[in-house]
Amino acid sequence: MNRINELFANEGNKRILSIYYTAGYPTLNSTLAIAETLEKSGADFLEIGFPYSDPVADGPVIQHSSEVALRNGMTLQVLFDQLAGLRRHISIPVLLMGYVNPVLQYGVERFCESCKAVGVDGVIVPDLPMYEYEERYQEVFEANGVSNIFLVTPQTSEERIRKIDGLSTGFIYLLSSSATTGKNLAVSEDTAAYFSRIRNLNLKNPVVVGFGISSRDAFMRATDYAAGAIVGSAFVRLLSESNYEKKIPAFIHQLKEIADGY
Amino acid sequence: MSEYQVNEKGYYGDFGGAYIPEMLYPNVEELRQQYIAIIQSEGFKQEFDQLLRDYVGRPSPLYLAKRLSERYGANIFLKREDLNHTGAHKINNTIGQILLAERLGKRRIIAETGAGQHGVATATVCALKGLQCVVYMGAVDIERQAPNVARMKMMGAEVIAAESGSKTLKDATNEALRDWINNPVDTHYIIGSVVGPHPYPDMVARFQSIISAETRKQLQEKTGIETPDYALACVGGGSNAAGMFYHFLDEPSVKLIAVEAAGKGVYSGESAATTLLGREGVLHGSRSILMQTDDGQVIEPYSISAGLDYPGIGPQHAWLYKSGRATYASATDDEAMQAGLLLTQLEGIIPAIESAHALAQLEKMTFKGDENVVICLSGRGDKDLDNYMKYFGF
Q1: What is the complex's ipTM, to 2 decimals?
Q2: Any idea which architecture A14-256 has in CATH?
Q3: For the domain that residue B215 is a member of, what is the CATH number?
Q4: What integer is the mean pLDDT of B329-335?
Q5: Residue-number span of the structural domain to which B132 is assigned
Q6: Cβ atoms within 10 Å, residue B388
Q7: Residue B374: HSE in the Cβ half-sphere, 13 Å Cα cutoff
Q8: Which of B295, B298, B310 is the best residue to mutate to test the A interface, defined by the most A CB atoms within 10 Å of its own CB?
């Protein structure tokens, strides 16, 4: 059982908060320090993005952070070097998120081995389709104990959700709507109906909602239905501000409604 | 089934597939399940043929270029896609896709464009069918191609500037994909080349295959033999080449030559010669060959011709290259511009700079005397007059 499974298995963990941010942004070497601050502030797990030149699933905020990170010199190799000391500092689950081409060039097997070596628990690669994963890569992911996380959207059929549930080993990443990152979750009956439809499927994997979670309100609404929710663009926007390090605890506390100083 | 055509899994040899995020899966899957049945239905075929004939002006002539033939010592035939309505081969595909979109019940059309030819061809068929049209175009290209932007707007299309990355074709494609993710129900994405996730490369190649279907018939009438010794075409993403090669793929006697844009020289750092500079990888939804760094970041290409300024090639081309079925050559900016001027002066035809890359290959070939060579003249040069004038100082 890896750290992801343990996190969700613990009955005490309700309304799990995950934070996404881009490695190498705002500066090349900020990756690990941000992770430490997030853990101390109360984030339950982390998704660290490795940048790509053509991030088609991302909106302007994460696109910009990726461009800056690439200019700063971030690569998968640099990231794994930075993460070499990850488990001396961080105990919460850590996932990597990015696009398939950098992984292919690094080598899928080597990528999984590097994840295992530094203590990365899972990966989210939105443009690695289920078919390719099953056909070519499932074995090497599983051999290294790396969970591959799949996405589900409001348009995903029940049959396909069941298949994804069968292949998943960590959690299912539920998109609040079919959208690129960084749009606000609309308060609509449709969204509520969609979330409860998914909940009523009684999937074996926990469900975590992402895309469009930018406020305490959206976080609470998503976690009324799902085990957890992910905040990405809103946090990346915070990283663009001066003195962002000092603002991280308040950002997390406000989302989780932990009193500052707690 | 030809070993050079797509298999049931969406692959050409090692290349192709559908590397798309889940948000695009329902739309791409709907297309995959329906495209063959729709384009083979009687109603579709009738309307497609009728529009190609009466609206586009097909069949396009196959013209024996006598003075060019004398110069190179071969029978050089030009497949005159430049004479199509809107001035290039792009309209063959947009006619096919708009009829498909209509049958899928889509009301909103999006497209990417580089030089603007595919954008114009898409805006044209949207006007024809009364469908909403949104075209993504790199901000840099909008500056460079003002007349095509005006044509699109006149036809009622909304032209949205892609401001990310290098602000050219690759970035316009990213923006179109993002639009499709955000509009998953009523929108069809008309991709302009044989790129993108399966079934796009096959679908676009089928619509462009009219080029070689007509060529076979016309060659038979003119020479008594349906197949040429050589078939040549330029390659950016590769749609006119895919159409020119389509019905010759399983004719081993036909030598297929694709010409990429080498910009200021293949190894100058300003080039779009993908097969020479690229490695296998995934871009815009398919596994192919693309120009990229060791870390898998896509490298910005360069060519004087905006239509060849793309860092990848379609997956079928990657397979034709790797399997050795076709030869991938390249022409620099200078070679293409000279070839364009030569055609203008010998035959009175101003070619698009894209097509001039294919013509440039003639300088590097030696002929036995009576060989038949077909070149796809994919577009006319009106849109390139500014470039020609600047280059030659007219």
Answers
A1: 0.94
A2: Alpha-Beta Barrel (3.20)
A3: 3.40.50.1100
A4: 98
A5: 22-51+90-203
A6: 18
A7: 35
A8: B295
* Mean predicted confidence (pLDDT) in A218-232: 94
Closest CA to B237 of B341, B152, B117: B117
Residues of A in contact with B8 (CB under 8 A): none
How many other CB atoms are there within 10 angstroms of residue B214's CB atom?
Answer: 19
Q: Tokens 């074995």 — which residue?
A: A139
What's the DSSP call for residue A214?
-
In a domain, B4, yes or no: no
Write down the pLDDT at residue A261. 43
Q: Tell me how many degrees the CA angle B294-B298-B304 measures, rounded to the nearest 5.
A: 125
DSSP B301: P
**pLDDT tens digit sequence for B72-107:** 999 999 999 999 999 999 999 999 999 999 999 999
Half-sphere exposure of A94 (CA within 13 A, CB side): 28
A139-168 burial, b for 16+ CB within 10 Å, e for fewer?
A: ebbeebebbbbbbbbbbbeeebbeebbeeb
Partners of A16 in the β-ladder: A228
Q: Is position B9 within any domain? A: no
| Residue entry with tokens 């044509």 | B151
Choose among B267, B224, B208, B225: nearest CA to B79. B208
Question: Which tens digits make up the pLDDT trace of A128-153?
Answer: 999 999 999 999 999 999 999 999 99
Whether A47 sits among the annotated catalytic residues: the reply is yes
Which one of A22, A28, A53, A67 makes the best mutation probe of the B interface by having the most chain B beta carbons within 10 Å? A53
Task: Residue B149: name the closest of B116, B100, B124, B172 by CA.
Answer: B116
Is B124 in the same domain as B231?
A: no
Prior bond to B201 cis, omega within 30? no
B152 shares its domain with B221: no
